[in-house]
Amino acid sequence: MKITFPPLKQQTKIANYLDQKTKKIDTLIEKSTQAIALLKEHRVALVSAVVTGKVDVSEE
After folding, report:
1. In the chain, what is the greatest distance between 2 CA atoms, to the nearest angstrom?
2. Amino acid 60: pLDDT
C-alpha cells in the first residue's frame, strides 16, 4: 500500500496551526473550568447567606 505525505514544510505548517488552535481551546477550557468553580463557590455562599438569614428572600 502506498501512502503519500505532504512535504515536510507543509507538515510543519499544519502541526503549528494545530498546536495554536489546541492551545486556544485549552485556554478556553481552563477559563471555563475556573468560571464554573467560582459560580459554585458563589452558589454555596448565597445558599449559606439565605439559610442563616443574612439575605431576605421573602416576598413582600
Report:
1. 78
2. 64
Does residue 57 contact residue 50 with C-beta atoms inside 8 Å? Answer: yes
Count of Cβ atoms closer than 10 Å to residue 46 Cβ:
13
pTM over 0.90: no
Mapping DSSP to helix (H, G, I), strand (E, B) and coil, where does residue 60 land?
coil
Cα–Cα distance measured from residue 11 to residue 4, given in angstroms and rounded to the nearest whole number: 12
Domain boundaries along the sequence of the chain: 19-43
Residue 49 CB-half CA count within 13 A: 10
Residue that the C-alpha cell 463557590 belongs to: 41
| H helix intervals, 1-60 | 8-51
